[in-house]
């Protein structure tokens, strides 16, 4: 299939591009490079474009005879979304509807969407199933939910075929060692822990040690980025084979606390990592763990990296060999 990947130069996008190429698809990356890295998709046809510009999208869809789109291009920081909501409504909502209209005009009927566990908000039950109430607590989560709702309306009325994949905590890096996580600023736990291990930060600050969890720190479901990438390929192939699509959680079903992540990193790195205890971060639920039974059952998805040390090891391989990210590999 000819697949356009918006946001394909980002962290999860670039890993999915690699998986699509390996599965034999023809991939075109569409990215404005606001946060993505051209080097993460070296050798793949690339269009520098903006999802809020319909002409950029239409041009790429037609020029490459696109059959399906994977849509990653979005702003994705919870904290920033609360400070600068307009950026999120413009990119994630206006950009989203612009993309859907371009798809309609170009006659492209298949889309896989990069959604998030943030659509659920504070969980009522763990593990979280797809039918859990949707009450996002951030602007980010709301914009992702709005796009999911648009997808459903476009399916019902215009026959769009979609799968919306709700990720829990994406982590790790491609085991091949050439691509990985490179955010600026970095806000995610595992890269921050590894930057502290490399001496690039004084310490990692634990955001809250008084949660109602066994060790007092937040529990998250860390899912390897390569497993996420595989799920996208499976979701695309299932839609093309006539599957129903819809929403799917993607997590590995195991929760790990912040302290457990730091301990795993110490085992992988083979050294103590400097830690500080800090205040809670606003908006962090105590526990977020997915039920991914639906993806396993309907898509035949089976995460390969379920061991936390293994996930951290792939991230460490990337950070150690690319201490400055894509900018200046060592
Ligand atoms: N966290 C932390 N210190 C940090 C960054 C994150 O203690 O410097 C915690 C955060 O409060 C959350 C978990 O690590 O409980 C995962 O956070 P991250 O930002 O990686 O992902 P999120 O769960 O927000 O998607």
SSE layout:
Elements lengths: L1 E5 L4 H12 L3 E6 L14 E3 L5 H10 L4 E4 L6 H6 L1 H22 L3 E7 L22 H20 L2 E7 L1 E3 L17 H9 L6 E4 L11 E2 L1 E3 H16 L5 E5 L5 E2 H12 L5 E4 L8 E2 L4 H7 L8 H14 L9
Parallel strand pairs: 1-2, 1-4, 2-3, 4-5, 5-6, 6-11, 7-10, 8-13, 9-14
Antiparallel strand pairs: 9-12
The protein binds uridine-5'-diphosphate.
Uridine-5'-diphosphate binds next to α6 and β8.
Q: Would you give an account of this structure?
A:
The structure is a single chain. With 330 residues, the chain is of the alpha/beta class. It has two domains: 2-170 and 223-250, Rossmann fold; 189-220 and 253-321, UDP-galactose 4-epimerase, domain 1. It has ten helices and 14 strands. The chain has helices spanning 11-22, 54-63, 78-83, 85-106, 139-158, 189-197, 225-240, 258-269, 293-299, 308-321, and strands at residues 2-6, 26-31, 46-48, 68-71, 110-116, 161-167, 169-171, 204-207, 219-220, 222-224, 246-250, 256-257, 275-278, 287-288. The strands form four sheets. Strands 3-2-1-4-5-6-11 form a seven-stranded parallel β-sheet, sandwiched between helices. The protein has a three-stranded mixed β-sheet with strand order 12-9-14. It has a two-stranded parallel ribbon with strand order 7-10. Strand 5, helix 5 (139-158) and strand 6 form a beta-alpha-beta unit. Helix 1 packs across helix 7 (225-240), helix 2 packs parallel to helix 4 and helix 4 (85-106) packs parallel to helix 5. The protein is globular and about 55 Å long. The mean pLDDT is 97. Bound molecules: uridine-5'-diphosphate. Uridine-5'-diphosphate (UDP) binds next to helix 6 and strand 8.
